[in-house]
Amino acid sequence: MVDNKWGKRIIYQIYPRSFKDSNGDGIGDLNGIAEKLDYLKDLGVDALWLSPIYQSPMHDFGYDISNYYDIDPIFGNLSDFDSLIKKAHGKDIKVLMDFVPNHTSFEHPWFRQSRSSEDNPKRDWYIWKPPKKNGVVPNNWLSQFGGSAWELDKKTHEYYLHTFDVSQPDLNWRNPQVVEEILNVMRHWMKKGVDGFRVDVAYYLFKDPFFRDEPRNPLYSEHHMQYDSLLHIYTIALPETLNMLKKLNNVVNEFDDRFMVCEIYTFLHEIVNLYKIVGHQSFAPFNFSFISLPWNATEQKKFIDEFDELVGQDYYPTYVLGNHDQSRIAAKLGEGSARTAALLQLTLRGVPFIYYGEELGMRDVEIPEEKARDPMAVNMKGFDFGRDPQRTPMQWDASRFGGFSDVEPWLPLEKEFKERNVASEEKDNKSFLNLYKSVIKLRKTRKSLEEGKLVPLDFKNPNVLGFVRKEKEEKTLILANFSQEEQIVELPKSSWRTVLSTKLDVENRKEKDQILLRPSEGIILFSE
After folding, report:
1. Could you give the CA distance from residue 328 to residue 459 in angstroms, rounded to a whole number?
2. Strand pairing of 94-99 and 67-71?
3. 306 catalytic per annotation
4. Cα Dmax for the chain
5. DSSP string for residues in 85-105
6. Could you count the other beta carbons within 10 Å of the beta carbon of residue 90?
7. Which of 165, 263, 388, 521 is catalytic?
8. What's the pLDDT at 368?
9. b (16+ CB within 10 A) / e for 358-395
10. What is the per-residue burial (b if ≥16 Cβ within 10 Å, else e) of 416-434?
């Protein structure tokens, strides 16, 4: 049975550039986050995950690190970071850092030394290969940001590997010196009080030592990214990578009450397998089923039931509705269904990850091509692959720049920010924000919601998903209507009382044998 505190915690992702600007440069920073800790505490979150704040030339907005041991000046300094940790811990809020172990910036001193000559001691810290005899790239591997994953270095006439942007050379995880240095980086930040890490692109660490060409993807179409034209059997999820994630988690476990979550986009059986390989309650891989699967009750129920059963009671699932790489859930589903998705995320067994602004129902923002900042959008113009739309500034109030900054922000706000913001929604009893607060409060005060088992239900209705959370004799029933039409549901035998609807217009209503679910409505019922 799970007894680890992380299985009960609610984690909130902050994209620091876009959360709160404290110094008037149009970019969010650490002191801005510190200013909003009371808001986060009132919302009910238990931990923050900060997207990268390390020193970086910002070609990929912090995912290209030039110094793992320092803070980038646009966010503040080490003193600001220490202050944020102290203030957050003072409010019983944990802090996780984004951790980028697959690659560095090409401006990192390690890479500058590595590319300086073939004899440099740091040469083998990265992945270098000579051209083929005909002068072309070493193999057919592709970059996620478009084109070949190989870039020719003119000085040494060899290619370096970059699975992502050309500014992000891949580290060589087969070099023990690299492994030890990265593990020491983790120890360094945990000694400073960091409570754990979100590991970026965790499945990419090791690559095929024989550098074999990857096979073509027979299902590929030109409407998808070029990267998807290959089956990445030699660059993703190698056995060595899975074992290394266990080693990273062992370092996390050198410290008390720490946590590590890994970014992996993969199939159910691989997610479950990773739980077993790492084998500790301080670890969980991300589950993106709400994002990747069709939004219908049948598909989601099938995944949830199987996922919960396979993960078992020794570990806990994770549930994600969005992040800095994915379109916002309210933009994809509309407000009604997004409210129901939030209800499910916060009442299922496991750890929910809330992306900043999700609690307001923030939408994607259309970014003109000439204002695109994301290198993925810039490198692949003409395709809708940019991630700027879901990274726009947090909407705090109805003032000129949404309370985010006193000057024009680095990205524009959504057009409806004057209606959709924290100050406005706090006053509206039926707002998205108050739905989040209400459900989180129930989760924290209801034992069955916080740590109870999940009992699947089958209503023989393809539009309705339901389950019971049970802890000893206490039972909580969750129902969700995925359709745009009313649905009548036969309730399980018990005496039920509706305590919350996603419409926020029902409270303490005693139910009979049946219940009417309105379009896109989710409800929580207590057994009496």
Report:
1. 30
2. unpaired
3. no
4. 79
5. HHHHHHTT-EEEEEE--SB--
6. 9
7. 263
8. 80
9. bbbbbbbbebeeeebbbbbbebbeeeebbbbbbbbbbb
10. ebeebbbebbeeeeebbbb
Please report the pLDDT score of residue 374 as a whole number.
79
Give the N- to C-terminal CA distance of the chain in Å, as an integer: 26
| In the chain, ranges of CATH 2.60.40.1180 domains | 453-527
Amino acid (1-letter code) at residue 10: I
User: Which residues of the chain carry a pLDDT beneath 50?
Assistant: 1-2
Q: Which residues pair with 216 in a beta bridge?
A: 230
Residue 485, burial from CB neighbour count under 10 angstroms (0-12, 13-18, 19+): exposed
Q: Is 367 in contact with 411 (CB distance < 8 Å)?
A: yes
What b/e readout covers 103-131, taking b as 16+ CB neighbours within 10 angstroms?
Answer: bbbbbbebbeebbeeeeeebbebbbbeee
> Residue 507: its pLDDT value, please?
87
Residue of 165, 170, 200, 359 marked catalytic: 200
- Strands 196-199 and 94-99: what pairing? parallel
Strand 259-262 and strand 283-285: the pairing is parallel
The two structure tokens encoding residue 485: 């039409």
DSSP single-letter state for residue 260: E
Spell out the SS3 assignment of 137-178: CCCCCECCCCCECEEEECCCCEEEECCCCCCCCEECCCCHHH
Rg of the Cα atoms in the chain: 24
Q: How many residues does the chain have?
A: 528
Residue 200 is a catalytic residue: yes
Q: In this structure, what token pair is assigned to residue 227?
A: 């990267």
Which amino acid, residue 133? Answer: K
Q: Where in the chain is the domain with CATH 3.20.20.80?
A: 5-102+176-436
Q: Degrees (nearest 5) of the Cα angle 403, 406, 407?
A: 120
Q: What is the CATH number of domain 5-102+176-436?
A: 3.20.20.80
pLDDT for the residue numbered 367? 86
Provide the Cα torsion 368, 148, 286, 260; round to 10°.
-110
The pLDDT assigned to 1 comes to: 40
Is domain 109-161 classified as CATH 3.90.400.10?
yes
Closest CA to 126 of 56, 163, 175: 175
CATH number of 453-527: 2.60.40.1180
